[in-house]
Amino acid sequence: MNIGKIFWHGMAEEEKIEYLSKFSVAVIGSRMLMELLWRGGVGCVRYIGDFITPNDARLDCTVEPLEANDYDVVHPMSPDSCVISYPFPDDYRELKRQLKGIDVVVAHKHIDIAARIAEELGSPFIPNIITTFLPDGVKYWEVEMPRVKFDPISYALTCSIQAGEILRIFTGYHMPTIAPEAYIVDTRSQYYLKKVTLRVRE
Q1: What is the C-alpha to C-alpha distance for residues 78 and 191, in angstroms, rounded to an integer?
Q2: Which of 114, 126, 182, 183 is disulfide-compatible with 107, CB 3.0–4.6 A?
Q3: Confidence class of residue 111 from pLDDT cuts 50, 70 and 90?
């Protein structure tokens, strides 16, 4: 039994599990989310890394502390995996080329640029909170985004729930959260999640 089937055991039909292998996700600046998507059975992950700061190494437990102050590059997870790693480019057109053909774009860094390109490509976009901006829905730049402070626990929970939301998009197993509705991980809350409605700018 492969990792994807283990994750979805008892939750979705085998055909839907296998269907995950047909999809691709671009992840900008979150190695933890990239790992979760690969382990969840997504067919191909394009990982666009960036310079790793000491804070990145503190928050993301998949990053070794000694990797701080270096560029983030990942390698294939297994012989049959499709994890393609790119450095974040300075050129807008090059980033758009890297994201072309992607089914969902997720950005924890360079969020504004990624949102614009996802819109141009007609791809759903997920920022660093739990919500999805659809191509025919409210736009990322049309709402006021809340300020979010992460610690290692809230960051891990955010990545895990985002991975689940992406798998929901692909399998139809429940609906993901669609903007302007959103959730923020708040470890002070009893159930760790706080539901918010993103305010649309006038």
Answers
A1: 35
A2: 114
A3: very high
Per-residue pLDDT for 54 more than 60?
yes
With a threshold of 0.90, does the pTM exceed it?
no
Locate 98 and state its tokens. 């890297």
**pLDDT value at position 81?**
65
Paired residues of 193 in beta bridges: 185
**DSSP 3-state assignment of 200?**
strand
Pick the CATH number of 3-200 from 3.30.450.40, 3.30.450.20, 3.40.50.720, 2.40.128.490: 3.40.50.720
Confidence of residue 4 (pLDDT cuts 50, 70, 90): very low
Q: Three-state SS string across 85-152, please? A: EEECCCCHHHHHHHHCCCCEEEECCCHHHHHHHHHHHCCCEECCCECEECCCCCCHHHEECCCCCCCH
Distances (CA, A) of 96 to 48, 90, 133, 135: 12, 11, 18, 16
Rounded distance, CA 104 to CA 89, Å? 19
Residue with the two structure tokens 């470890």:
187
Rounded distance, CA 53 to CA 19, Å? 36
Contacts of 77 (CB under 8 A, 6+ apart): 35, 38, 83
Tokens at 70, concatenated: 């270096």
Asked whether 29 and 50 are in contact (CB, 8 A), the reply is yes
Q: Which two tokens stand for residue 164?
A: 């689940």
User: Residue 54 corresponds to which tokens in the numbers above?
Assistant: 């000491």
